[in-house]
Amino acid sequence: MLILLTNDDGIHSAGLQALAEHLQSLGRVVVVAPDRERSAVGHALTLHSPLRAEEITKDHWAVSGTPTDAVILGICTLLKEKPDLVISGINKGGNLGDDLTYSGTVAAAMEATLMGVPAIAISLASQSFKYDDFADAAGVAKQLAATVIEHGLPADTFINVNVPDRKPLGIRLTRQGKRVYEDAVVEKCDPRGRCYYWIGAGEFGFQDLAGTDFNAVHNGYVSVTPLHLDLTNYSAMDRLRQWQLEEMQFDAAGAGSST
Ligand code: MN
After folding, report:
1. For residues 172 and 29, what is the distance between their CA atoms, to the nearest angstrom?
2. What is the CA(176)–ligand 1 centre distance, in A?
3. 27 Cα–ligand 1 center, Å
4. What average pLDDT score do residues 114-127 get?
5. Has this prediction a pTM greater than 0.85?
6. How far is the CA of 223 from the centre of ligand 1 (A)?
7. Rounded to the nearest whole angstrom, what is the distance from the C-alpha of residue 233 to the centroid of ligand 1?
8. Domain count within the chain
9. Which residues have beta carbons under 5 A from ligand 1 (an ion)?
10. Which 3 state secondary structure label does DSSP give 49?
């Protein structure tokens, strides 16, 4: 069994170290991760500068790029064979609801899925991030890794796992919930009187709906959400069909007009 680990908090993060240690008993574990924190870079790819990969200790590669870069380098170049599983995490902080579209942790699992490798993204919804805090989440990761290997995942699908900040009561299969954004931008003044802005510094709420990832974690359960890469909103198709877009003609100036 060959398992590739990555994250977006950087190769020195406690969550990644805890994950690597707990998974050793399942097979060979190779870490390929960004050389520094790259949280909230989403699915960014480095296309316009060279990438470096340094093996800082055996099977621990630090990459000078994003989590997505790390997965691509790991699978295509650094590992000499295709891994059986990619696990991204354990992230410092939950990746729940709308927030997972920003997440480098989730994007790394997405990239592995695109490359045909089963993948798990795992995050700890906590305020404290010492090494020991990640023990329960690492145990969850190990059990889920074995389960994914045993059953395989449906095509085009990976799982997003969030672990509560206390001993988990169990696992809940969930759907992606909704964030409530308030005070999303904090405005302050620097010592020279110029304004600066800080995104995401305020308190965020969420819609506490049954069946969602937020609800499960809030109630002390591990949330497991199956995600896929097809962003199409199939339920919106019928409404947009009424716009008759496919009947639209274009005049010489390029402006659209319905016939
Ligand atoms: Mn992170």
Report:
1. 27
2. 18
3. 25
4. 97
5. yes
6. 18
7. 28
8. 1
9. 8-9, 39, 91
10. coil
The answer to whether position 255 is within a domain reads: no
Neighbours of 202 (CB within 10 A): 13
Alpha carbon distance 147, 134 (integer Å): 20
CA distances from 76 to 54, 67, 80, 115, 147 (A): 16, 14, 8, 10, 25
For 216, the domain range is: 2-177+209-233
Maximum CA pair distance of the chain?
66
Q: Encoding tokens for residue 9?
A: 């908090």
Instruction: Encode pLDDT of 15-71 as tens digits.
Output: 999 999 999 999 999 999 999 999 999 999 999 999 999 999 999 999 999 999 999
DSSP states along 191-236? TTS-EEEEET-S--EE---TTBHHHHHHTT-EEEEEEES----GGG
CA of 122 to the centre of ligand 1 (A): 10
User: What are 197-206's pLDDT values in tens digits?
Assistant: 998 777 778 9
CA 255 – ligand 1 centroid, Å? 44
Alpha helices in 55-121 (DSSP H): 67-73, 104-114
Residue 194: pLDDT above 70? yes
How many C-beta atoms lie closer than 10 Å to residue 119's C-beta?
28
Alpha carbons 9 and 181: distance in angstroms, whole number? 23
Tell me whether residue 247 is in a domain. no
Calculate how far, in angstroms, residue 150's C-alpha sits from the geometric centre of ligand 1.
28
Residue 45 corresponds to which tokens in the numbers above? 């790819």
Residue 257 pLDDT grade (very low, low, confident, very high; cuts 50, 70, 90): low
Q: How far is the CA of 70 from the centre of ligand 1 (A)?
A: 14
CATH of the domain at 50: 3.40.1210.10
Three-state SS at 90: strand
Q: What sections of the chain are H helices per DSSP? A: 14-23, 67-73, 104-114, 135-151, 213-218, 237-241
